[in-house]
Amino acid sequence: MKIVVVGGGGREHAIIKSIKKNPNVEKIYALPGNGGIAMDAECVDIGATELERIVEFAKSNDIDYAVVAPDDPLVMGLVDMLESEGIPCFGPSKDAAIIEGSKAFSKELMKKYGIPTAEYEIFDSPEAAYDYVETCSIPVVVKADGLALGKGVIIAESREDAKNAIKSIMEDKAFGKSGDMIVIEEFLEGPEVSVLSFTDGNTLIPMVSSMDHKRALDDDKGLNTGGMGTIAPNPYYTEEVAEICREEIFLPTMIAMNREGRRFKGCLYFGLMITKDGPKVIEYNCRFGDPETQVVLPLLKSDLLDIMINVTNETLDEAEVIFDGGAACCVIMASNGYPGSYEKGYEITLPPDDSDANGNIFIAGAKLSDDGKLLTNGGRVLGVTETAETLEDAISKAYNTVSKVHFDNAFYRSDIGRRALMKK
User: Fold this and answer.
1) pTM of the full predicted structure?
2) Which of 61, 69, 68, 56 is nearest to 27 (CA)?
3) What's residue 43's pLDDT?
4) Which residues make beta-bridge pairs with 212?
């Protein structure tokens, strides 16, 4: 089989490394990929949102299967375009990807079908939003309606903060058209849990749970990022909580999308908060999360590509989906200054190819120089993942491997997984 994976980050590298294990895979193309992904796939300089070029490439290269990983091309309808040309895909249709593409849509869906989430109001004018935050409970969460590279969510600790958030999103257009509409919702408290799931619209199979670490600095300080590390499984996601989520959130969401005529096929991501009133949905994503994918897939014992094809064929109930009973830890190594400004172009030194430590290093922000050296080219440069029977051992192994990776100006958190260990 010839496979195309659309995207170019650590998530895509993790997906590609998993897909490569399938004996039927002859060739993997990454569009656009990156310098590190080039070690495992042929990278083609076509951007993830260049939909027509992607379709033309897939047709002219006789692609057998496509995996569309990022949110933008999914929301823009790339899966629909590829499938209309006879190329089967893993990923939701445009109609289904709206569950992430519009926060207003997802909140209204949850309200209509009784899926537990934070109380909220939706605004399409800044004036009405300003009036609302004069009297609502504080703190609140202000969210841009559309996609915003994971940065369109602002926790406002005061009314002044809330007004500044509204101005930034709706008037200053910090996130472009994604801020034409906003959602202002109640601030929930409790541990956060990420649960990715495979679903074909008939069957939904949750993957192992994970815990993200969003803040840039140790002790959950500093600016929000795209994620500085993850662990799996999440100790707050107990068997009891999992059963509640399945019956009150996961299956009702799948059924709700079917009833709305928006059958979801692909990876449906549930961002949850375990509140004193039980688990509630913070957000949905229409794809694998990053860096959650970098701890979830290394624990998957079953064949990823086989599962994906079962999802596409709506035969997920026939698939074998088995996860290792152990644990995983991913530490993100970033460029100093991230998520603000940072310098690029530093050489990356990795452990030898034949080293066990090299197996689960997922490259996110890197490029190849003319002489074949791997250079930093982004904020989050790479993720180092290790697995073990216990979380303690997985964390220890991950940091040991981090010590064997080098690039100038590198920084990373030293406390990934500490909160989880305190719970255990």
Assistant:
1) 0.95
2) 61
3) 98
4) 230
